[in-house]
Sequence to fold (401 residues):
Amino acid sequence: MFTDKEGIDKYVENLKKYKENKNRNKALLLAAMLWFKGEYGDYPKDNSDGALTMEIFKRGTLNNLNFETTTMYEKEGDAKSKYQSTYPLNLENVEKEIDNTYSFIGFFGHGDSGGVYRRIWNDGNKNEKFDKGEDYWNSFLHRGVIEKNNMSNAVIFAMGCLTAETEKPNLAMSSLRYGAVGYIGATRVAYGNPDSPASKELLYWGDRYFNYGETLGESLYFSKLDQSFSITSFYDQHNFFVFNLFGDPSISYFDEDYSIYPRNSTIKQKENKLININKIKGNGGKVEIYSDIPYEVSSNFLEDSLSISFKTSYKTKVGEYYINIKIGENYTTTIRVNVLENTLPYDLNDDGLVNINDFIIFSKSFISKKGDENFNSRCDFNEDDIINFSDFSIFAKNYKD
Fold:
């Protein structure tokens, strides 16, 4: 992002300032009107407002963390945002607020490498349907504003095309040079759904970054992984690759002493989950864990890392488990494990069938006990630490050739 020493030095100063800031509960959310009613024939059915994403994010994640949130939404023309905002969205108001001690800034609008834009609709023929030529465009944030006024010492999530286009001087570059510490934005054209303008990209990422304490790098990577399971179109696939991170990937909202991976995991009954903890700046010490799921710890912090293995059983209740971890005298944190029902516990090779292939796996552990080399906990169906005829009887009743 920088090719000159001055830019690198400025960015390092931004990082120092951010790490020294203990009050990170201030957010600035900017959202433009994206598309208008009937712009593409029969759709969108109503005006497509970027403020929908910001309101979901504000009322959920940010509200739960007691953020002081300033909003700016479209209040001009015949397509005004239905959501109340602190100020109307325009360049003058953004210019006043852009360097006002916010630790997070999110914006949603049409963009290019130089800035982000709002669309204003004046329904000239009063037919309540957008017709060509009835809109005009105004910038509400551009590189000149940032370079003139500086940028808040913030993490930025930029919903808009090309604001991080790597081949040109861009909004991401100016933001990081003049105050920001992290910038997630689009390196190419990004796509949206005019009938459903809620940004999965921002909402999935925000949940991980703010709620689970993952770093910028971790939260972006794993939010993409979360979304990958529901990709159904070219547009979703395209956006998967378009949004990228610029800045220090180790930045975190909680400024953790330890990197914990994963903080948010899903497992089935009778499966194990390994959680890894690495020192960042912590001093280590005695590890205390408060969990309703049984676990084993590799060791206390004698080196730079340890691991915790959580072990569910067929009897473990389905649901979310919040597990508190204390390290040493001063560090505490919470991780989440979501346990799902194991609907086919006898499918030992996880191919969706219970047949001869599973029997072969079972037979290799038959007449063994916990601690034996060939003991397979998945074959201990009655969970008595012995695999014998009782377990065989349970397996046989569910066998389907």
Residues 367 and 388 are 5 Å apart (CA to CA). The longest helix spans residues 5-20. The chain has a mean pLDDT of 90. The domain at 258-340 is CATH 2.60.40.10 (Immunoglobulin-like).
